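Hi L.,

You mentioned the student needs an example of a multi-chain input paired with its predicted structure. This one should do, with 456 residues in total across all chains.
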Amino acid sequence: MDEGGTGSAEGPPGRGHRRIPEATVARLPLYLRCLLEVAESKTVTISSERLAEMAGVNAAKVRKDLSYLGSYGTRGVGYDVEYLLFQISRELGLTQDWPVVIVGIGNLGHALANYRGFGARGFRVVALVDADGSKVGEQIGELRVRHLEDLPAIAAEESVAIGVIATPAGAAQDVADRLVHAGVSSILNFAPALITVPEGVSLRKVDLSIELQILSFYQQRRAGVVAS
Amino acid sequence: MDEGGTGSAEGPPGRGHRRIPEATVARLPLYLRCLLEVAESKTVTISSERLAEMAGVNAAKVRKDLSYLGSYGTRGVGYDVEYLLFQISRELGLTQDWPVVIVGIGNLGHALANYRGFGARGFRVVALVDADGSKVGEQIGELRVRHLEDLPAIAAEESVAIGVIATPAGAAQDVADRLVHAGVSSILNFAPALITVPEGVSLRKVDLSIELQILSFYQQRRAGVVAS
DNA sequence: GCATGTGAATAGATTCACAGCG
DNA sequence: CGCTGTGAATCTATTCACATGC
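Structure written out for the whole complex:
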């Protein structure tokens, strides 16, 4: 899918060594999370079956997904947890860290700015930006909110790779355009608006109201089935 | 995908009149949003081509998606905007309103509690809940935060249909269990944790770090291609 | 023996292309 | 004629089932 999830638009295929299916890419972070948990308990190896159980997927899927990365397992034994962790991290580009800018410092922007878990794994919020002059200068954690107009300078100084849009819907496309123009080539959009970006820019979206509406669909189905 | 979430786990198929593919269900909210925008400009009909362009998908996909709902278009003309709006709303269960409870009133919970857009379309936040006694009683908008222990009573009183989990990862599974136990059968999980629910409960997730990691993958690919 | 890795089979989603109808 | 609705073709993803190799 999503796609998903959530589903969402994708960047171009790129051309690394192997061609990894989109659906697999979307599951790698899931495996990563499970492996981190397993690693804490000093477990040395893990079978596809166990990993599948933890991730809530089918064991064959785990094996096929991992096989796209290479033959990192040992037949009759399983996968070395630490080694697999490293390989997945590397594949996901988490061995380097990516400077992130958050645009739109309202309720959600605040929450994102304070979110621990950026730093943990390869992402570092280097700037907070808002179009509203009255918010500029506000201190949040270690950062001070800067003006949207400064985006090109900020992006260049900090080599921003990823932009997070947390503005109202109406501003989202403009902000996306500015991000792209400033050289940011990965965008995560939280605004409830459809935005478009040029080829070569990755765009993913997180949309609360869409998720709720999908839940509503299935909720209604169940209610309907019960009633009939 | 997903899924999608952006990709995410689904509820059971249910058995309404028609069997609507999951991928289609995930796009209906998108069409709905586009149609709402079009409706404001007093446009009476819309072609699949135009709608596709707005939604950023292929026209054939729009037609096929809409055909699962019924034959609501007119050949040679297009779709009546108002009529289609109504049909999609009905299909998504948005003609009734769904009481929502938000569990976990930290940064994110606050942001969600203040989010306008719940009320707009069929969702109504009826309760805010937290396990931390020091947060109980805090006033947010029109609601006062209540204790997690009161969840069963709240769910029953308010006929809560949808639970939103905005707790830290460690608490997510416990909260999910409590929600299910209290009779909530749709859950939207924002916590960066894998949770499981029984058959008959829909679960979707919104996971910032997964989305960032997916972006990181494609970002790295592009960087790699440029470098080589 | 046992769990991986992978071709083959199946299922699901997208796109094509055109018949059908207003 | 124009645009919908939809079978057929294609592409993508999932699952099966077993040969392979530690």
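You could point out the following to them. The radius of gyration of chain B is 20 Å. Strands of chain B lie at 45-46, 73-74, 78-80, 98-103, 123-130, 139-140, 143-147, 162-165, 186-189, 202-205.

Best wishes,
N.
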